[in-house]
Specification:
Low-confidence stretches: 1-35
Strand order of the largest sheet: 2-1-7-6-5-4-3
CATH superfamily: FAS1 domain
CATH class: Mainly Beta
Number of helices: 8
Mean pLDDT: 85
Strand content: 15-25%
Largest sheet: 7 strands, mixed
Radius of gyration: 18 Å
Shape: globular
CATH topology: FAS1 domain
Structural class: alpha+beta
Number of strands: 7
Length: 192
């Protein structure tokens, strides 16, 4: 490789980083190689840097990553109430369909408070959001996955637009953590 090619490569990489920063787009972590890159309009709502950013989440196991992300504070509180943090953090190659705070806000307050107070039901609901395999973007096009709760959930879509169970939209998908892939969704899923 000659010097001109090296300079062009460095310039192209630098230009991409500058463009992303100027446009307010959080670049995916360079160390994450899970077969997909984060996608979706909701990714722009994540912090640009720090522990709750895409780069920060890549360094932590999934429950820890969620607890550091301001978009997932209700989910993090629910995981803590159900004592699932260690289970999620110690699992390998899982996918978490993570409801955002806005997803939890769709549930009437009385119903949400009742769910958070019922550890058994809360555990069932949270485990329904976890699949015991690492799902890639291409898997989401027409997927049928068994959850840790025991029931199946389905995904469909194309491009950057995917739906879970024909009800929840993936607003930011393909987020890598140290042990999982996270798909941020706009609706809390309920098992049958």
């Amino acid at each position: 490789m000659n010097v001109t090619r090296i300079h062009r490569s460095v310039f192209a990489a630098s230009a991409a980083v500058v463009f992303s920063a100027v446009m307010g787009i959080a670049a995916p972590p360079a160390s994450a190689d899970n077969g997909t890159q984060p996608f979706g309009s909701g990714c722009s709502s994540l912090p640009a840097d720090g522990q709750g950013s895409l780069a920060g989440m890549a360094n932590d196991p999934v429950a820890t990553a969620a607890s550091n992300n301001p978009e997932l504070s209700t989910l993090a509180a629910a995981v803590k109430a159900a004592d699932l943090g260690d289970t999620l953090n110690n699992s390998k190659d899982i996918t978490v369909f993570a409801p955002t705070n806005a997803a939890f806000e769709k549930i009437p307050k009385a119903d949400l408070d009742a769910l958070l107070a019922d550890k058994s039901q809360l555990t069932k609901v949270l485990k329904y959001h976890v699949v015991g395999e690492k799902i890639t973007k291409s898997d989401l096009a027409k997927g049928d996955f068994k959850t840790l709760e025991g029931s199946n959930l389905t995904t469909s879509g194309s491009g950057d637009s995917f739906t879970v169970n024909d009800s929840a939209k993936i607003v930011c998908g393909g987020i890598p953590t140290a042990n999982a892939t996270v798909e941020l969704i706009d609706t809390v899923l309920m098992p049958e």
